[in-house]
Amino acid sequence: MNVTCGTDIIEISRIKALIEEENDKALNRIFTNKEIEYSESKGIVKYQHYAVRFAAKEAIFKAISNRLNNKFEISWTDVEILNDENGRPEVHFLTDKIKGIKNIEISLSHCKEYAVATVVAIW
Q1: How far is CA 97 from the centre of its chain?
Q2: Cβ-contact 78, 97 below 8 angstroms
Q3: pTM, full prediction
Q4: Distance between CA atoms of 39 and 3, rounded to whole angstroms?
Q5: Cα–Cα distance measured from residue 50 to residue 89, given in angstroms and rounded to the nearest whole number
Q6: Which helix (H) or strand (E) holds 111?
Q7: Most buried in the list 13, 19, 59, 78, measured by CB within 10 Å?
Q8: Domain containing 61 — which CATH number?
Q9: What is the DSSP string of 52-82?
Q10: pLDDT at res. 97
């Protein structure tokens, strides 16, 4: 059994600026339709939800990078962060390029200024 981890923190203002500058181009490059739908449903705090999903994807890429041939092997939208029926975040891989993960756990948190994600992958 191998265990890898990844952590990322991002300023929410950076994600807000990116989305406001590039609008749909940035949204569709980084987030899946379900992630966009979820984040948009959060009203005035939607940028916190976008930012924490961005941080989650970065943390996942850090945790699995030693298993990829190159960092461009998967794209932002190959990974989807959704919540289960209890509100707990879950990682969904939308590609078969990521193989061998037995379990992946994720923890997300955000406040007014920052979003942070931590990922643990078990191989």
Answers
A1: 17
A2: yes
A3: 0.93
A4: 30
A5: 13
A6: none
A7: 59
A8: 3.90.470.20
A9: HHHHHHHHHHHHHGGGSSSTTSS-GGGEEEE
A10: 80
